[in-house]
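User: I'm preparing a small set of examples for a lab meeting where we compare how different chains pack in three dimensions. I only have the primary sequence for this one, and I'd like the structure in token form so I can line it up with the others. Please keep the answer compact; I'll paste it straight into my notes.
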Amino acid sequence: MLTGIVSSNVGPPGISVLIDRERRPGERRTDFFYAGFADVASGRVPERNEHVRIASVSKGFSAYLAVLLAREGSLSLSDTLGSSIPGVLPNAEGVTLRQLLQHTSGLPEYIQAPEFGEQLNADPAAYLAPRQLTDFVRDDPLEFAPGSDYHYSDTDNIAAGLMEEEAAGRSYPSLLRGEIFGPLRMGGSSLPRTVAMPRPFMHGYDVEPEKRPEDVSELINPAGAWASGGIVSTPADLARFVPVYVPTILRASRRLNGAFRPGTSSPPGPGRNSAGLGIFRYDTRCGDVYGHTGSFPGYRLFVAGDAAGQRSVVFVVNAQIVPGQGSQQVAGAIRRAQTQAVCRALR
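Assistant: Understood. Below is the structure token output for the 347-residue chain.
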């Protein structure tokens, strides 16, 4: 199925799928599948240790950090924007960290602000600081009363990252390195401030019919997505993160009586999607998995695992082919292939 997707003249140049399973305590089996190219110019094929932009999968890292800091006592999921970072989003002072992570805050989407689009188009490689991102919607009203509805918003995780920095007294990149990348031996993961990708990397492409794929890997500065979508990682690193992230978030959710509610990740993952505390449940024909999806110019990702932390899937596509963008036939085929990957992991 992967070969069929990349063979389409409107398909991505390459796909990689890393499936990790614990066969018995201390013994794991890892399968790596790929089709097409990681680099069209050289003809190089995808590898499990190649860097990719993980886009909104970064939101899972923000949620995991929040739970760690809450466990240490330096932060509570009931802390509000007003008590933590007063004045940053004055119309949302009563919004809690929990509501940010659940996308029930009502905060408007900064990415949709006209000023953000103008600045991005004027200089895609320019660095934007986190508080510049929140400034794009600083004076906008909330879209709904906090906690009353669900709306996926990148602003939520920018605000959550700022709260985590304030609580810990450390920068967000330092928190990622000290609390996640280091302890989990994720040596290929970082939160860059420039467009440069660490080598080697799976190139990301813009795909149009009858045209050679355009390499957009180093076109847009990921700092414009920061805690919401700016992390660079590798499939191998993500396979280390998922078995820790999923059980940790699910345990925290149970302590909070946190139920999953109707809500689709962006882009949608396989099966029926529902939203939780910085995580999504994907109810597929082969069973439930939990994780996150992401898309960024040149990339589409799906990362998930079972509740026990014993099985995981890292699915990377090197083109942003998602609902509403690119070939919808290919977008649907990618989602079906994700379901097949889940079934293989749970088998």
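A couple of notes for your slides: The longest strand covers residues 14-24. The chain has one domain: 2-346.

User: Perfect, thanks.
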